[in-house]
Amino acid sequence: MLLTLTTTHRPATDLGYLLVKHPGKVHSFGMPTGTAYVLYPEADEDRCTAALLLDVDPQLLRAQKDAFELSQYVNDRPYAASSLLSSALAKVFRSALRGASKDRPDLAAVPIPLEIRVPVLRGTPDLVTRLFEPLGWSVTATPIPFEPEIGGGSRYVDVLLTGELRVADALNHLYVLLPVLDDAKHYWVAPDEIEKLLRSGEGWLAGHPEKVLIARRYLAHRRSLATTALQLLEADQPVTEEESELPVARRAPLAEQRRDAVLAALAEVNASRVLDLGCGGGALLTTLAKDLRFTEIVGADVATRTLEVAARKLKLDRLPERQKDRIRLIQTALTYRDDRLRGFDAAVLMEVIEHVDLPRLPALETAVFGHAKPGAVIVTTPNVEYNVHYEGLTGMRHSDHRFEWTRAEFADWASRIADQYGYTVTIRSVGESHETTGAPTQLALFKVVSA
């Protein structure tokens, strides 16, 4: 993963003072996901280039909790500029981002000719231009084609930015906009990200024509955080630590609303012995474990690595024996019959079915509704009609989704399953509902018909 910063200001080697990195050395920095290097491929009076190279170790990357099993190794993280590169930039150029230069303070305060190259960046030429051009950059974004035998264009561009700006401004633009373009932060986005956004966007973000898109993407589409950030920008007031911890007009994230809806459905059917099928990293399991009305909890997933993550999240090795006895994690494929899953009060398939290839879905239906036959089944899945409200989203909500259904398609499927396997079913909405597209998540509660 590479980024280069070039100047023709004379003497050009003053760039080393502005970046606080000597042009005659190779500087290395340990990062949570690999090693960052700063080096100077050219450094003379007329032209000086500093290169930030991030060598990403795939084994240090944590795939998203709902990613496919090999995503830790099969991904674009080692080469496409992203929040990984943004984090490296923040660490190695900390003083330069603040505009501080002990040796050249006057130069740090004035614009100088700059050229920035990012050879591989996820995005489109149009979006790159819309983000950087209003900031004073001349933008050249060249689409990167696939190999000739494959043909067509990829989703990556080779970006060249030229302009006269302060080095601090240039670095802050990159710090914010690289993860915005990638649109997939590698770490959990907490409320303190608001302060980072406003600090790095000081002087330019409030007037940017794409500030709404920037706030939403930078804050990982967490609507409450983006709303807070935009309100603070509008008010033109600095964010305090207390404000960053207490978002204005906080609305619970969709994941939280989804869990609450599942818990409400479990309470409705008086379930005490519960299956979490496709449990992933344990997001729902940790909530179930805290509620003592659930006397037996089983998390099932096909990925052993994911189950290890769930075990760590549940702190199974530290729980008292009485608590530990309530919880089991088992490795199994939901498309195969497994006697260990029989006889439970309820089973939850929370954001699972859309990860199953459609030709394999009947096998899951048979295994869960026919063979395991719990007293109730709770299924949640995205409502594809709502996707139009996610700015910048093309295709499905996740790269591993095999399909996403409309409300009518989900209702038809649920009705067929209920009739085929002896259940009644009710459909519910989860999340803020729109009058035309409905809510972002749809939930089906199946209850077995008593003999």
Given as residue ranges, the uncertain stretches (5+ residues, pLDDT < 50) are: 63-69, 237-250
Assign the CATH topology of the largest domain: Rossmann fold
Spatial shape: elongated
Q: Which bin fits the share of residues in helices? A: 25-40%
**What do we call the CATH homologous superfamily of the largest domain?**
Vaccinia Virus protein VP39
Counted up, domains total 2
How far from one another are the termini? 62 Å
Strand order of the largest sheet: 2-3-4-1-5-7-6
Structural class: alpha/beta
Radius of gyration: 25 Å
CATH class of the largest domain: Alpha Beta
Provide the succession of SSEs. EHEEEHHHEHEEHHHHHHEHEHHEEHEHEE
Strand content: 15-25%
Instruction: Tell me what the CATH architecture of the largest domain is.
Output: 3-Layer(aba) Sandwich
| Main β sheet profile | 7 strands, antiparallel
How many alpha or pi helices? 16
Average pLDDT works out at: 87
Annotation, overall tally of beta strands = 14
Protein name: Small RNA 2'-O-methyltransferase
Enzyme class: transferase
Cofactor: Mg(2+)
EC number: 2.1.1.386
Describe this protein's structure.
This protein has helices at 15-19, 83-92, 94-97, 105-108, 125-132, 167-182, 192-200, 211-218, 223-235, 241-245, 254-268, 283-289, 304-314, 321-324, 361-372, 407-421; strands at residues 2-7, 27-31, 34-43, 48-56, 112-122, 138-145, 153-165, 273-277, 296-301, 327-331, 346-350, 376-382, 423-430, 441-448. The chain has 451 residues and is an alpha/beta fold. It has a 7-stranded antiparallel beta sheet with strand order 2-3-4-1-5-7-6, with helices on one face. A 7-stranded mixed beta sheet has the order 10-9-8-11-12-14-13, sandwiched between helices. The N and C termini lie far apart (62 Å).
